[in-house]
Every structure is written in C-alpha cells, then in structure tokens.
Amino acid sequence: GAVVSQHPSRVICKSGTSVKIECRSLDFQATTMFWYRQFPKKSLMLMATSNEGSKATYEQGVEKDKFLINHASLTLSTLTVTSAHPEDSSFYICSAHPDGPPNYGYTFGSGTRLTVV
Amino acid sequence: AQSVSQHNHHVILSEAASLELGCNYSYGGTVNLFWYVQYPGQHLQLLLKYFSGDPLVKGIKGFEAEFIKSKFSFNLRKPSVQWSDTAEYFCAAGATTLFFGTGTRLTVIP
Minimal Cα–Cα distance from A66 to chain B, Å? Predict the structure, then answer.
C-alpha cells in the first residue's frame, strides 16, 4: 500500500536555528502533499498544501517565511522551520495521496516531534 | 467555512461495551469523509472512508460509520470494544484537503 516516510521522528534544536523535516512518498507519486501541526489536546491543523513545482498554499495565520515548504519532486516535500522558537515546539505530520483515483485515500507520515530549547 | 466537530472529547468504556463517536461536518460541495485512529505512540491510520454509495461504511477492526446527509453526520460505531481500541480517534472531511475534528480519546477499561 501507499507509504509515507517522515524524517526525523524527533529533533531538538536551539532557539534561533532552523530545522528541516522531510516527507517522502515511498511507493507512489504525489503532486500534492500536506503539512499538519498537532497541538497538545487539540486537533490536527492544516498548515499548508505543498505543490510539486510551484509555491505552497498556506492556511490563514501560518507564517510563510517561518515555515518554508519545498516540493522539489513528486516524491519529496520538505518543511523548514526557520529561526525556531520554543512556541514552535510541536508535532508536525505530513500526508499525501497518490496521483490516482481518490479512492486511495490519504496516508500519513509518522510525524516529527520538534522541541525547541 | 469547512469544519468538523467531534463532541465527545474523552470516552471511557468497559470492554465489550458498544461505542458510538459523534462527528458532524460543515462543508460546501461534495465531501469525502474519513475516520482515523492514532494509537499511543503511533501515527495516524485510516479506519474507514466514505466517498459515495452505501452510506454505511465498514472499516478495519470491526468499526463502521454511517453517513447521514440530512444530519451532516458521520458517526463511528463498534458493537463491542476491546482494550486494544484505546486510542485517539479523528474524524476528517474534505476533498483535496482534509479538515480534522478535535479528536476523541477513547479509553477502554479491561
């Protein structure tokens, strides 16, 4: 079945540094990938839609310059948290569905726990 | 505006009890509906999905959900829960983009 690999699973970084999170579709191509942030005791919030070969579409309230998204190929999207601050600490999850019929559904990566100290 | 509501924040059941988790959505146009489960320490997994056709959808692990268009609802059910069903359950709706409910934590007591 469709598999999405997300790396790293955990990362601790110092305040002011940048962190890159990768999201790969292992056995399918995805023109579109999605980045979510999960807040404690709250739902998954869609941050942005990553589009291969074009600019990402950000949800209202998400800072484009802080959360840089690059979708350079049909199997890889990256999220870079720039100049990270402690309030950026969270659980980030990517998802994708194959560029085929919608019946494949969405597959999620295993998530990245970011801790900014 | 698109939104998904899950009214049960935390449900505690004994093993063998029946389960029903509520999900209501607000979405313009044709909507696809999903239930995802997140077991402790694991990532989201798809339980079941509805695109069209029979409004009663059967998923994995004995779960099912019923799409009631008139009520904008897609409630999740299981006749008899097990301890291993302890997890966080998310309802989601959308077409090309998914919007999630706030999740329901299910605790099953042996």
Answer: 22
Are the beta carbons of B91 and B35 closer than 8 angstroms?
yes
Query: Position of tokens 């990517």?
Result: A94
Query: What 8-state DSSP symbol labels residue B109?
Result: E
Q: Is A74 left (phi over 0), alpha (psi -120 to 50) or beta?
A: alpha
pLDDT in tens, A14-35: 999 999 999 999 988 888 899 9
Encode B18-68 in three state secondary structure: CEEECCEEECCCCCEEEEEEECCCCCCEEEEEECCCCCEEECHHHCEEEEE
Q: How confident is the model over B8-57, as pLDDT tens digits?
A: 889 999 999 999 999 999 877 778 899 999 888 777 888 998 988 999 99
Count of CB atoms situated within 10 Å of the CB of B92: 24
List, in order, residues 6 or more apart from B30 with CB less than 8 Å away: B95
- A74 three-state secondary structure: coil
List beta partners, residue A40: none
> Is the N-terminal amide bond of A98 cis, ω within 30° of 0?
no
Minimum-distance CB partner of B103 among A43, A107, A109 = A43
Of all residues in chain A, the one with the smallest CA distance to B52 is A103
Residues in chain B, how many?
A: 110
Q: What is the pLDDT of residues B61-103, one digit of tens each?
A: 999 999 999 999 999 999 999 999 999 999 998 876 778 888 9
